[in-house]
Design brief:
Layout lengths: L1 H10 L3 E18 L7 H4 L8 E14 L2 E11 L5 H11 L7 E2 L4 E2 L10 E11 L2 E10 L8 E7 L4 E11 L2 E9 L9 E12 L2 E18 L31 H7 L6 H16 L5 H13 L2 E5 L2 E5 L8 E4 L3 E13 L5 E4 L2 E5 L4 E13 L4 E13 L5 H7 L15 E15 L2 E14 L10 H8 L2 E13 L4 E5 L2 E6 L4 E8 L12 E14 L2 E13 L42 E11 L9 H4 L4 E10 L6 E9 L3 E10 L2 E11 L4
Antiparallel strand pairs: 1-2, 1-12, 2-3, 4-5, 6-7, 7-8, 8-9, 9-10, 10-11, 11-12, 13-14, 14-16, 15-16, 15-33, 16-17, 16-18, 17-19, 18-19, 19-20, 20-21, 21-22, 22-23, 23-26, 24-25, 26-27, 27-28, 28-29, 29-30, 30-31, 31-32, 32-33
Length: about 675
């Protein structure tokens, strides 16, 4: 295996390109179902109206780089025509570079990784002689159960130390899979597969769906790299060619002679029977039946809805979608609704509308935001945005000095204070443009209006004070300019649209804003400066360290102001597992966010699939995609030392975490956070 792994390092990027015709025969059966299967098309490729279907696909495919596959479907036929997700299901598993250290978007650590001995046990099962080749059969098993590891058999050719065949068992997304792939023994094509058989079993929400695929490859052209890939510092930052997958509309061809010429093995009698019987059954079905109308209606209410019409795309979270629920100890249950509407014009210019609303049950508060973007220069990330909504209720700088005087009192408690809270409404116009790769400039004009919250008065307040209070209004007109820079920023071009991917260097951002009195009734007269530094660092296969350090202060405070920082603020809705940096406190009371005119904070997160494996049994750990450890620290003049530690686990369905807060390293409280990953 040391020889195999050493060879894999050389072979991983040896292919430059190839073209092949792929024949695929698939069968999908719904073995167990309930009413929750209506969510199935969002969770995994399934056609719930056809419980047993067989189909065939011919695809012209090519590889243009080690990680980019293009698939152009040329023909399809079957007892039922599968939807687009079903058509692409097998391709995402076949797009496997068997010599790579990781597979499937770095979701699985392969037994050919250079540190594989740390995670796998290898056993020699047998040695066989066939066609003049000596083949070693090597069993590989994970040392600890994890969704990021696989098991199975490798068949290794003696002296060549190449893979003749792989029998792979694992779990990816919602599927348990078995992939058996045979490779060519022709030295000119030894890296390329000749045939593959894939078995998938989905068990989700009490439903079981099984799919099987047989695939045959017919390679037309193969090109190898003559030299090694350039070192990283010399690589082109444009990664566009590494991230493209295409699948056009597929013509239905029912000519039996055509398919007989494409098959490497004939249909079984059972498959031939399905072709005939199922086609008649499906044609006889009436999609306009009352039951079908009901199912379609409930799907729109409970599922994320996608609609496309020419260049317009609409995505709605679903009014009764349970996966929009979240929970945290500080805010209790939250529920959010979001709509995304986009229309694309010439040269990939795009207009987007982003209305959303959410309710925090514990605080009995409704939050809303109306957003719109005009991406007028996509190749330079030129975006003009308009946002309006409400934000966290807060209080003014007038009470900060009182808090500083009282905070050292051992009996200090926010709940005992009679604060003047204000509702916060805002509107902002912002323009973002890229000056050069990785360097962006943002300019914004924002208007903030704060109105007194009447129900926060205490019994000790007299009538005259109440009248004065509820009539208080604070308006701020704030022009802002910001700069963001990431050295050697890798990117990809989706048509004309430029998207940042990653960098091996940190991103630095600085922002300056000044409130100008007298504009649109503005009473504010102050300045705000804020800076942020964040980075995501790959420290090994499937391991990552993320950090964010930021700080800010208010200067030239010539009027009453509200401490409202961009990077230090309360979040009410749990973020998904994809929020890798974090940058938020989960146990800190809301009141502390407005008690100081300056702050410094640091957030650190370490991600690994194998942090605390001994805490989980085999049947539990195989469902855990990754684990995370969090540490955060905060300094403000009134709260000079506040820290938070946390631990979380996540997968494709949900993420959950537990956090503990400490003031001057003395335990204060504990908080629990839960969020669904689905449809986020």
């Amino acid at each position: 295996m040391k020889l195999v792994i050493a060879s894999a390092i050389r072979y991983e990027n040896l292919l430059s390109s190839y073209e092949t015709e792929i024949y695929i025969k698939g069968r999908s059966e719904i073995l167990k179902s309930n009413f929750l299967l209506r969510f199935g098309h969002n969770l995994f490729p399934v056609n719930r109206r056809n419980k047993d279907m067989v189909f065939e696909i011919v695809s012209h495919s090519r590889l243009d780089s080690p990680h980019t596959f293009f698939h152009d479907f040329e023909a399809i036929n079957g007892s039922s025509i599968p939807n687009s997700k079903k058509q692409e299901e097998v391709l995402q598993f076949l797009n496997l570079n068997v010599y790579s250290s990781t597979a499937y978007n770095d979701g699985i650590l392969m037994p050919m990784a250079k540190n594989a001995f740390k995670y796998y046990n290898f056993n020699l099962e047998s040695v066989e002689e066939t066609e003049g080749f000596k083949i070693y059969k090597i069993r590989f098993l994970p040392k600890q159960w994890s969704q990021n590891l696989v098991s199975g058999d490798l068949y290794i050719i003696d002296k060549w130390w190449t893979i003749d065949k792989i029998d792979l068992n694992g779990r990816y997304a919602f599927a348990e899979f078995n992939l058996v792939m045979d490779f060519s023994r022709d030295y000119q094509k030894f890296i390329l597969p000749e045939k593959a058989d894939l078995f998938l079993r989905y068990k989700v929400l009490g439903n079981t769906v099984v799919s099987t695929y047989h695939t045959n490859f017919n390679f037309k052209a193969v090109e190898w790299r003559e030299t090694e890939r350039p070192k990283r510092r010399h690589e082109n930052l444009d990664l566009s060619r590494y991230y493209r997958l295409s699948a056009d509309t597929v013509p239905i061809i029912q000519d039996s002679t055509y398919w007989a010429g494409k098959r490497d093995i004939p249909l079984t009698p059972e498959e031939e029977n399905l072709y005939e019987v199922k086609r008649k059954e499906i044609n006889a079905q009436a999609d306009t039946s009352e039951a079908m109308k009901y199912l379609k209606f409930t799907e729109k209410l409970t599922n994320t809805v996608h609609m496309n019409y020419h260049t317009t795309h609409i995505r709605y979270s679903g009014f009764l979608n349970p996966f929009q629920l979240g929970y945290s100890g500080r805010n209790g249950i939250t529920y959010r609704q979001r709509v995304r509407i986009s229309k694309t014009f010439d040269n990939d210019r795009q207009i987007r509308f982003r209305p959303e609303a959410g309710y925090v049950f514990k605080r009995k508060e409704l939050f809303f935001k109306l957003g719109a973007d005009w991406e007028y220069l996509p190749e330079k990330r030129g975006i003009l945005s308009l946002n309006a909504g409400n934000d966290n209720n807060n209080y003014s700088s007038e009470i900060m000095n009182d808090i500083i005087d009282m905070v050292n009192d051992s009996t200090f408690n926010f709940e005992n204070l009679n604060f003047k809270y204000f509702r916060h409404y805002f509107v902002e116009v912002k323009n973002n443009i890229e000056v050069m790769n990785g360097f962006e400039v943002t300019a914004a004009l924002s208007y903030h209006r704060r109105l007194a919250v009447k129900d926060k008065n205490k019994d000790g307040t007299n009538d005259e004070e109440i009248v004065d209070w509820i009539n208080e209004r604070y308006n701020d007109f704030i022009p802002t300019i910001g700069f963001s820079y990431t050295p050697r920023q890798y990117y990809r071009m989706d048509g004309k649209r430029k998207e940042y991917v990653y960098s091996y260097f940190p991103t630095f951002t600085i922002e300056f804003g000044r409130s100008i009195p007298g504009v649109l009734g503005s009473t504010g007269n102050f300045e705000r400066i804020e800076a942020d530094l964040h980075q995501s660092i790959n420290v090994g296969l499937l391991r990552r360290i993320n950090y964010r350090i930021s700080g800010g202060l208010y200067t030239r405070q010539k009027s009453t102001y509200f401490a409202d920082f961009r990077y230090f603020r309360r979040r009410y809705f749990p973020e998904t597992w994809g929020d890798q940096i974090g940058g938020v406190f989960n146990t800190l009371k809301s009141e502390w966010y407005n008690t100081s005119d300056k702050y410094i904070q640091g957030h650190f997160m370490y991600q690994s699939p194998f942090l605390l494996p001994k805490l989980f049994k085999k049947n539990t750990s195989k469902h855990i995609l990754s684990e995370r450890f969090y540490y955060s620290h905060l300094w403000t003049p009134v709260l000079p030392s506040y820290s938070e530690v946390g631990y979380g686990v996540g997968n494709h369905i949900f993420n959950v975490g537990i956090f503990a807060g400490f003031e001057k390293y003395e335990f204060q409280n504990i908080s629990f956070k839960f969020a669904f990953e689905l449809f986020q």
